[in-house]
Amino acid sequence: MRTIALALVCAFLAACTKVGTTGTAGQSAAGGNSFTKPHALRIAMLGDVTTLNPLLSTDLQLFWMADLTMAWLFRYDHANRPVAELATEVPSLQNGDVSPDGKTITVHLRKGVKWSDGAPFTADDVVFSTRLVLDPKTNVPGRDGWDRVVKMDEPDKYTVVYHLRQPYSPFVVTFFSTGGSNPAIMPKHLLESTKDINHDAYNSLPIGIGPFKYVAWKRSDRIELVANPTYWRGVPKLQKITFQIVPNRDTILTALQTGDIDLWPLAPPAYYPRALRLRGFKVLRQPGFNFGHLDFNVAHPAVGDPLVRRALLLAWNRREQRDKIGHGVGILSDQIQSPANPFHDSRIGFTELNVNQANAMLDRDGWRRGSDGIRVKNGVRLMLDLVSNTGSPDTDSRIELLRTDWAKIGVGFVRKNVDPALLLAPYAQGGIISHGKFDVVFFAWFLGPNGDVSNLYSCKQFPPNGQNDIHWCNQRAEAAMDDLKLTYDFARQKRDSDIVQEEMQKDTPTIVSAVSEDLYYYNADLKDFRPNQTSYFDDFMNVDI
């Protein structure tokens, strides 16, 4: 599985581009940027987070920081392959650390590793953290995979053995890896006496085992990291990283122009032409694993009918949005898997705009236009609640184009803008998406390299027990998702993944606006920044500015 992934992904990585800058404004006599702060990197993030503990959140921006600071068994290399971090090697059938029946996984741990407060790291921490995840009182976003653990053995302080009731091939991503990013290993010595991990002070300034450690969270302003002198690989070249919290994407661009920000990760395509003109900056563009999308809450009557959802797909001019607002950045597709991902289904193409077909479908199905132009059937009006995040003018523009598109088939919506932290908050913290407070929601998912999407689309993963926020349940896709997790054979996993994507195309619970091309706008003085598509901040030991 991993060999195939390497071959496919490297082919796409070779096509990534780094675009140079023009002009010399802002540069010092020595050729560098006058605004550069040596060995101190300033990274933009849109809005604040609700916690710094990845055990309790699915916020992407938290994962950026967690890659740098928290404790992981496995990281990912530049070809998106898992590599050992706190484990000494990645368990597999080949090395004998996965049993022939796939139900026993042995993890060997590094010796001499310390938490950033100086305490020793041992198997006790891994066992303790697994029990935290399995504790029903812990507000983890989901327990898919973890719920297969029936017993753990700790034969010594540097070995953990997981006994599973069924094989679980995605364990490398799920069990404490940056590819899953949720959850990380927790320090037993700090948390074994906690009465409530969900509200423990630890969550505001957690201790981890990464090249950097947290020193301050100044809410709605910035989060500060410094080099961790106890990190087992050594001390990174950067001395300080500041995640600058900015409420609006336009403001982030201004901060780049004034030299107050050095890096904008996963920047939206709408800003691409202006970023190319930034003096003293470069742009990295490469295929990504994430996808922008509209999700339908299929439990709601207005969008519960697949025919209605299909009509909405046909009426959305996604090509115009990609070209007009995204400036041609992004891959038009009906499937969620990137062409850079080995689980891409080449048989699924892209559905072009066809307003006439959409109108004909709704007419035949009995949806009649009312006096205000909005279609109605059996007392249900196609006037939808559409939810999106604040602070994204480009998203605002996309949604207004969408309003015009859908009006042509008799569908309207009331838009509700929500702060990103509340929009993406876990169920226990009242998250808008996780509580299903939408007919339609506009955001993005970031997929891992292993083809398992059951945490998002399984019938068993409805909140609060998972992240299937759209409440889609398709029995053929469900069987395929279950089978993918049972087998370690790539060809069989690929067949299962294809079935899931084909069922999604048929039912249309999600419309993919575009599969991403990752964009990074960064200070030209930044050196050795080489993000992969799985976990963008995994290789930061030699990054410097």
Describe this structure in words.
Helix content is 25%, strand content 21%. The protein is of the alpha+beta class and 545 residues long. Strands 1, 11, 12, 16, 17, 18 and 19 form a 7-stranded mixed sheet that branches. Strands 2-10-9-8 form a 4-stranded mixed sheet. A hairpin with a 3-residue loop joins strand 8 and strand 9. The longest helix has 18 residues, at 490-507. It is globular, with a radius of gyration of 23 Å. The two termini are 36 Å apart. The model is unreliable at 1-16 and 19-25 (pLDDT under 50).
Summarize this entry quickly.
The protein is of the alpha+beta class.
Features:
alpha+beta; seven-stranded mixed sheet; 15 helices; 21% strand
Largest sheet: 7 strands, mixed
How many E-type strands?
Answer: 19
Outline, from the CA principal axes? globular
- Oligomer state of the chains in this structure: single chain
State which percent range the strand residues make up: 15-25%
